[in-house]
Design brief:
Elements: E1 8-9, E2 15-18, H1 21-39, H2 49-54, H3 66-71, H4 79-110, E3 115-118, H5 120-141, H6 148-152, H7 159-182
Antiparallel strand pairs: 1-2, 2-3
């Protein structure tokens, strides 16, 4: 980020950050991948218009993609309870995550000068989108198995080294936005 400042509060309900073009490009690439990933599992399994209207799906099993399983986890250890809960909530959760990602995409696309100025609601949407991007990258990095010490020692030619650099940068960006939101 320009000046390594991250987000800062500007007035009572404004949170500003300035991004270099390369940073915006990385964020746009990641957010567009996330939007595409979240839109892949469309429900065509039932014809009940009321169910479709209230967001009940025919999907009762976790997604096959490991990143989606992390973004849309089972709520219960019991398979029957998890399946039933998923039918009633997956569509809404997926929609909320897509809305956060679309909000972030919109702000990045409209920041011709690199300056992003968020209100409180948009800042919360960004927090959700950044978190989802980090979760997705964390799955690819296998952070449950690999500690930060292991990831820090990746060789310079390892393709995961760049992924890890973006993962840590997103953590810093998320932290700066949280700090700005908590700043009085």
């Amino acid at each position: 980020m320009n000046g390594e400042k991250g987000f800062h509060r500007h007035g009572e309900n404004s949170y500003i950050a300035e991004f270099a073009q390369s940073e915006r490009d990385v964020l746009l690439n990641l957010i567009e991948q996330l939007i595409e990933l979240l839109s892949e599992r469309v429900d065509h399994g039932h014809e009940d218009p009321l169910a479709a209207l209230v967001g009940i799906t025919s999907h009762d099993s976790p997604p096959e993609d490991e990143v989606l399983r992390r973004l849309l986890p089972n709520a219960y250890a019991d398979e029957v309870q998890a399946s039933e809960f998923r039918r009633y909530t997956e569509s809404t959760l997926r929609g909320k995550k897509q809305a956060h990602a679309m909000s972030m995409r919109m702000y990045l696309k409209s920041a011709d000068d690199g300056i992003v100025d968020l209100d409180h609601d948009s800042a919360n949407a960004w927090l959700g989108a950044i978190n989802d991007m980090r979760l997705a990258l964390g799955v690819r990095l296998n952070v449950q198995e690999n500690t930060s010490d292991v990831l820090e020692l990746l060789s310079p030619d390892d393709p995961l080294r760049g992924v890890y650099a973006v993962y840590t940068w997103l953590g810093w960006l998320q932290e700066s936005l949280l700090s700005a939101l908590m700043d009085e």
